[in-house]
Amino acid sequence: MKKEQESAEKQKKKCCPKWLKIVGIIVIAIVLVFGIPILINESYKENCGYVTMWSAADVLAFYGTILAAVIAGVGVYVSIRASNNNYQEDVRSRVLPFIAVNTLE
User: What is the pLDDT of residue 71?
Assistant: First the structure.
């Protein structure tokens, strides 16, 4: 039993701290929101190399659409998760007993 608890504690220590995860998510979001459009713009600035049938504006519009869809999907997920948590809390509060105690003095 102690070995299982010790291994569980070791796994908790191995995991990244919460603030590090948040910083990582912020960095990835900044790269996705700002880095890729800059990369697309720079790759279409020079008209040498592989010539495509679409322009940089078309690629940026496509990327914007994909990014908006991903953000909308995350919003739906967060909304469903919050409503599920509220529902579970509501179910717990409905099951709680109502006790009224009258004292005679």
Answer: 92
